[in-house]
Input
Amino acid sequence: MEKWLNSWSLGLDAHLGDFERLKEAGFRGIEVLAEQRKAADYLEFAHRSGFNVGLHLPFHDLNLASPDSVVYERTFSILTDWIKRLADYGGTHATFHGGYAWFSEEKHACLERVTERILRLDQVAKPYGIDLLLENLIPDHLNYCHQVASNLDEWLDLIKNTQVKACLDTGHLNLMGNELEEAIDRLGASLGALHLSENDGKADLHLLPGDGNQFTKNAGEYLINHRFNGQVIYEINPYKYSLQQIINHQSNTKSVLT
Output
């Protein structure tokens, strides 16, 4: 297993020296959040600091599941550009969200669209040796729209039907209502990476492990038992924790990577 950090945790104005501090602290890779203002700079800083690099593709205003063809083609174009940029830096994976249905009633048609579009995006990524990682999302409990994929069976079906891998977000899984060991077991060899954070079981707070409801307490044991050798990516709230607090935590705690 490799210990990584998602660049969201660095905040909006990190500089090269911050990346060098992370390298000295033992982090092996950086997953750059493409929506950050300095995402292109962060890719360069990570590369110059000797990190392995990955990418979290943009998603907030880009809906891969959209029934609107103009929205979808714009989404596909931007995601494709980012995948190519990642390839220029020798990147290994691109985490992505499956999007959302405009209305929960169109869930079935939405899932058919998403399946086809993941397959198309994978055709872009594969020649560059980049793995696409589909992340699990938080369900809409109001049942107004539908997040893809926000239940375990749906997530597993999409992975099986597209042959991409999974990025298991522990904070999201906690709010989905599934047990961590069950998810790791059912994902099996499809598990490509882990987004590591905790919360209180009510909101996606992105707390350091140990500061929430202990959902990730036995994560290391589960991952070792399943011979997981991918990336464990700390995805920690930069508005609650300083970079030094994150460094101190991973240096001192007996967490999943120690």
In short: Residues 32 and 89 are 12 Å apart (CA to CA).
